[in-house]
Amino acid sequence: MQTNFWQQLWMDNEIRFHESEANVFLADHFTGLNLTSGSRVLVPLCGKTLDIHWLLGRGYRVVGAELSKLAIDALFEEMEVTPSITRVGELWHYQAESIDIFVGDIFDLSAELLGPVQAIYDRGALVALPEDIRQRYVSHLLLISDAAPQLLITYQYNQQLLAGPPFALGEAILSDYYRASYQLSCLGSRAVVDSFNGKVPAKESAWLLRKR
């Protein structure tokens, strides 16, 4: 993990990746996972995303993983909730009603610590990771979640014009990562407005991953 890079972004409040409302694809497509109320959803590299508020507000339980303590302190402050905080191995465990967040390196999060999850919502994790870490992340998530179904959000744009993150990930790359474990379906795409500072046209896509 690029620990110093991400920690510095949060310290400098350089969080352009943070959306001011719940993601459109979350609202449009999360029901496609066919979860019951009370199902536990893993949100990797969650930051203080408002998507967590959306999930909790619809009766789901959330378990997040995040590198930055600043982000999670801000998340609970915005929720007006005081969590219990305990040390578990290399991670800090923030816990409150219907929500658990593990702060630290996601690769230190084991299946035992995570507990059972019924789905994964990945809006900002896979696209945030450089190529040399991505495959390890995919394998790790498969292991700790028992290949739970996923709603995955990605971006497509000319990577030569913009270095990322977020990184451009097309269907061929996703197929390489997931085809051994999941059936992959594109649920829809939309143009990205302003998120790339007007530098390059970009498209955001939603994918449904179901265990084979």
What is the strand and helix layout of this fold?
Layout: H1 3-11, H2 24-29, E1 40-44, H3 51-57, E2 61-66, H4 69-79, E3 84-88, E4 91-96, E5 99-103, H5 111-114, E6 119-122, H6 131-145, E7 150-156, H7 171-178, E8 182-191, E9 203-211
Parallel strand pairs: 1-2, 1-6, 2-5, 6-7
Antiparallel strand pairs: 3-4, 4-5, 7-9, 8-9
Concise summary:
The protein has 212 residues and is an alpha/beta fold. Helix content is 28%, strand content 27%.
Question: What can you tell me about this protein's structure?
Answer:
- This protein has 212 residues and is of the alpha/beta class.
- It has a domain at 3-12 and 19-154: 3-Layer(aba) Sandwich (Rossmann fold).
- Helices cover 28% and strands 27% of the residues.
- It contains 7 helices and 9 strands.
- The chain has helices spanning 3-11, 24-29, 51-57, 69-79, 111-114, 131-145, 171-178; strands spanning 40-44, 61-66, 84-88, 91-96, 99-103, 119-122, 150-156, 182-191, 203-211.
- The chain has a 9-stranded mixed β-sheet, with helices on both faces.
- Helix 6 (131-145) links the parallel strand 6 (119-122) and strand 7 (150-156).
- The longest helix has 15 residues, at 131-145.
- The mean pLDDT is 90.
